[in-house]
Amino acid sequence: MYMLYVDDSGSPSNTNDKYCVLAGFVTREDQNYWIQQNIDKLVLQYTGLPYPELHGSPLRTGRGEWHQYPKDTRNKLFMATLEYIADNYPRQFILFGAVVKNQGGDVSENLFTQITSRFDKFLKRKYTKHEEPARGIAIFDKMRKEQQFQVWSQIYQKTGNRWGETLANFAEVPLFLDSKMSRSIQIADIVAYSIFRKYEHNDDTYFSVIQNCFDKEGNTEYGLYLSL
Fold first, then answer.
1. For residue range 124-134, what is the model confidence (pLDDT) as tens digits?
2. Which of these, 22, 82, 186, 201, is most buried using a 10 Å CB contact count?
3. What total of structural domains would you count in the chain?
């Protein structure tokens, strides 16, 4: 079973955000435990505590529970998390992301369609090119779009998305978790925020570390969708 952990960055309802991002990573179920254990160790190493919640924006700016930590400590933890992802691609992490210009209206369906379609095609390639039977499930941070995402997922599995493609390789409709309870959702947030900083603020500091970690086959990259 392949698990896709997803979070968003940028808000369709915020007219100050030029772009909206939905992004995260895919891992096998047998790797998820080790990912969470190793990220816990990094958090403990830099904070002295095992439980602070990783979120891109608060970690960078020092908001909330991160205000007590010096900027240098926060930045080192942020970079160490990204470097862990890069060092363990593709064995533990394969990234997926969608970036859509926030042009008014609701861009959420476009983001959701891109992420789910690309994940489904990744699973299909596992079978057709590598003879590996693969099923997957998408796990999102809890969000206001939860019910709508569930509806879209059911439609896409039964009748297809806007391109007429059915999500034939999903084992179930998406699940939604509170990020406080899942390091993997927190890592997805770090990935989404790193992409958001790149396109919203032209800040390549974080994205440059993980830019080569998106789903690809040979010289063709499938994992990152851009509508700029």
1. 999 888 788 89
2. 22
3. 1
pLDDT tens, residue by residue, 66-118: 999 999 999 999 999 999 999 999 999 999 999 999 986 779 999 999 999 99
Give the integer Cα–Cα distance in Å for 204 and 18. Answer: 16
Give the Å distances, CA to CA, from 40 to 26, 47, 77, 81. 19, 10, 11, 10
Closest to 139 in 3D by CA, of 179, 95, 169: 179
Task: Indicate the SS3 state at residue 210.
Answer: helix
- Distance of alpha carbon 148 from the chain centroid: 19
60 closest CA partner among 107, 126, 9, 130? 9
Identify the CATH number of the domain in which residue 53 sits: 3.30.420
Domain of residue 128 covers 2-227
